[in-house]
Amino acid sequence: MTVTNAAPIVSTRFALDDGHTLDRYLATGGYEGLKAALAKAPSAVADEVKAASLLGRGGAGFPAGTKWGFCPPGVWPRYLVVNGDESEPGTYKDRLLMEKDPHQLIEGALIACYAIGAAQAFLYVRGEMALAQERLAQALNDAYAAGYIGTNILGSDLSVDIVLHWGAGAYIVGEETALIESLEGNRGMPRLKPPFFPAAKGLYLQPTVVNNVETLANLPWIVTNGGAKFAQLGAETSRGMRLFAVSGHVKQPGVYEVEFGVTTFRDLIYAPVYGGGIRDGHTLKAFIPGGASAPWFYEEHLDIPLEASAVGAAGSMLGSGAIVVMDDTTDAVKACWRVVRFFARESCGKCTPCREGTTWLEKVLRRILDGHGRPDDVALLLDVCDNISPGIAWPPKQTTICPLGPSAVSPIASAVVRFREEFVAYCGGTAESPVTINGKAYISQPGEVASV
Amino acid sequence: MARFTAENTILAREIITRYPRPKSALIPLLHLAQEQDGHVADDAMEHIAELIGITPAEVLGTCSFYEMFKREPVGNYLVNVCTNIACMLLGGEELLHHLEDRLGIKAGSTTPDGVFTIEDVECIAACTEAPCLQVNYRYFSNVTLDVADALIDDLRQGHRAHEVPRHGILARTRQLLPADRRAGNAVPGVAEEPVWLRTADTGAEAGA
C-alpha cells in the first residue's frame, strides 16, 4: 500500500459545519490566493498554473494552463464558464466542493478571470443540486458585499461579475460545447469541433475558457503556495492532489482526496483510511475506474496507479474520478444494462449512431434480462456497438459529435468479453455457444473481441 | 395557468440584464415560471418569449429538452429515486419498487391526491451514500425501506416543510447583483481588452 500523508488541498473545509460561510473562509486563509494573484501580473499567474502542471479535473484531463493559452490574442471579450454540471454516474466531488466550500470555487474563478482576461464569468451548476445553488448564491452575495467580486476588486483594476446559472436536467450539458449551447438558452446539444473549440469560439462565439469546479478550486492554493510546490505532489504526469469517489460494494464508500498518480486502485478500494475493502464475505468481481463511460477493470488491474496514461494503457480511462466497485453478487448483465440505459436516456438525439444505437442496445439488453434473449443477441449487441464505434477499440473510434455514444459501448465490450457465460446463459445457450451473427464470429476466443 | 406576476416580471427583467444576450436568461426564467406555478405553464412560456424577444416555439424548444421542466402539474413532492449503477448495487431498484407499492403508483406518475410524484432517475451525485433519493431536489441518503416509509409519512403530514419546499422552488437564496458593485456585462462587439491586462502590459514594459 502506498497511502501517502500528503495534506489535502481542496477538501480542507469539508469537515467544518460552517466551511461555506465567508467568515469561516476568511478565518482559514480564504481570498489570500486572490490577493497574491493581484500582486502579480496576469501572465505570471498563468505561468504559476502552467508550472503546477494542473490537469483539468472534469474527465478529459487536459492541462489547464495549456487550455487557457488557446484563447486567440486580441479577441475580446473573453469569458470564463465554470462547469458545475457534474452528472457522470459515480462522480461526486464537484457537488461537495460547491456545497461545502463555495468561496474556494469563487476565489479560483476570480484568479482564472484575472489570468486569462475574462471580463465576465458564468457559474453553471447542475439543476438538481439545490443546496449547491443556495450555498453559491449566498457566497456570491457575501463576496460581492465584501468587495471580492464586481468592480475594482479589492481596489485593483480587476472588474468581473460572476453570474450564477443553473441547468435543468441533462447529462450531456456537462460536455463543454453543449454547456455553452445551454448557457445561450438552447437545447443542450454539443457543437461540432472544429471549429467550435470554446477557447476560440465559445459563448456567443467569443473566446471562452470552460473549467471544471475542482480544477478551479485548486487555484487559490497554487497561487498562494506556488506552482512548483504543487508540482512536487503526485506523479510526474499527474501533479497535485485529486478527489476520487469510491462507491458500490466497499465497506467505507466516500470521497477521498489523495496524492494524484501515486495512489493505486488497490489503495483506494482496500486501504483502511479509504474504501476499507470489499464488504464482508464477498470478493471483487469488477470495478469501473473512471465513471460510467470507462471500460471495466478487474482484480488484475488493482495495482495500476490512479494516473491517466497508466489507466489508458491498460484499456480504460481515469475519467472523472469515480470508482464503482462490484462484488461477486453482481449480475454483470444487469449492471451492463443499467449503465447502457443511462446513455440511452441521456443521448441528446443529435447524432444517429448514438440516438439509435444506445436505444437498441438498451432494448436488447432488457429483453435478455427479461428472459427473452435470442441466440444471436450477444452478437447483436456487439454488432450495434461496432456500428456506434467501429472496431470496438479503446480509445473508441467516434462516429458522433461527442463521446456519449461510444461511451455506451464500453460497458458492453467489457462485460461481454469477461462475463460472456452470464450473457449466454440468459439467452438459453451454453458457455460453448459461439457468439456469431450472420456467420461472423464476434468472440473468437475467450477474452477477445474479434475485429469485424 | 399563468403569466408572471407583477413581482416576478420585475425579477425576470432583472435576470435578463445579467447576460450579454437576453436568450441566455431563458433557462433561469423557465425555472422562475416553474417556481411560481409548480410547473411551466403555456402562458408563462408566451410571457417569457415576450420578455426575451424570441418566439414561444423557441421557448418550448428549449424547455422540452430538459427533464426538470414539467409542462403538466406534478405532485407537491417530486420523489426522484436514483437507480443508476452505484445505487442499483445497493438496493436502488428495491427502494423504487417499495415506494411504488407504498404509494400505489408507477414511476412517472402522480398519486390521485396530487401529493406525490415518483420518478426513476439517473445518477444524482450521492453515490457514496447509496441508495439515495431526492424530494424536490433535496437529498436523502442511505435510504432503507424503513427510512423511506418514515419520510413519506413525514412529508404527508407536513413535518418536512422546512427542509423540502414545494415542487418548483429550487434555491431559496437568490443571487443579488448589487448595482454599485456590478462590473457590467461583457458584450461581444463592445467589450475591449480588460483594463487589468492593459495596465499589467504597461507595467511590464515599464519594468523592462
Strand order of the largest sheet of chain A: 3-2-1-4
Instruction: Look at the structure and give the CATH class of the largest domain in chain B.
Output: Mainly Alpha
Multimeric state of these chains?
Answer: heterodimer
Number of strands of chain A: 12
| Separate helix tally of chain B | 8
Ranges of chain B with pLDDT <50 over ≥5 residues?
Answer: 203-208
CATH architecture of the largest domain in chain B, please? Orthogonal Bundle
* Overall geometric form of chain A: globular
Element order of chain B: H for helix, E for strand: HHHHEHHEEEHH
Q: Count of DSSP E strands of chain B? A: 4
Q: Sheet bearing the most strands of chain A, described?
A: 4 strands, parallel
SSE string of chain A, helices as H and strands as E: HHHHEHHEHEHEHHHEEEEHEHEHHHHHEE
**Count of spatially separate domains of chain B:** 2
Notes on the protein architecture:
The complex is a heterodimer of chains A (452) and B (208). The model of chain A has no long low-confidence stretch (mean pLDDT 93). Chain A contains 18 helices and 12 strands. With 452 residues, chain A is α/β, with parallel strands linked by helices. In chain A, a hairpin with a 5-residue loop joins strand 7 and strand 8. Chain A has a 4-stranded parallel sheet, with helices on both faces. In chain A, strands 8-7-10-9 form a 4-stranded mixed sheet, with no helix packed on it. Chain B is an alpha+beta fold and 208 residues long. Chain B has 2 domains: 94 residues, Orthogonal Bundle (Arc Repressor Mutant, subunit A); 81 residues, Glutaredoxin. Helices cover 40% and strands 9% of the residues of chain B. Chain B is built from 8 helices and 4 strands. In chain B, strands 2-1-3-4 form a 4-stranded mixed sheet, with helices on one face. In chain B, strand 3 and strand 4 form a beta hairpin. The longest helix of chain B is centred in the C-terminal third of the chain and has 13 residues. Chain B starts with 5 loop residues before the first helix and ends with a helix. The C terminus of chain B is likely disordered. Chains A and B meet through strand 2, helix 7, strand 3, strand 7 and strand 10 of A and helix 2, helix 5 and helix 8 of B.
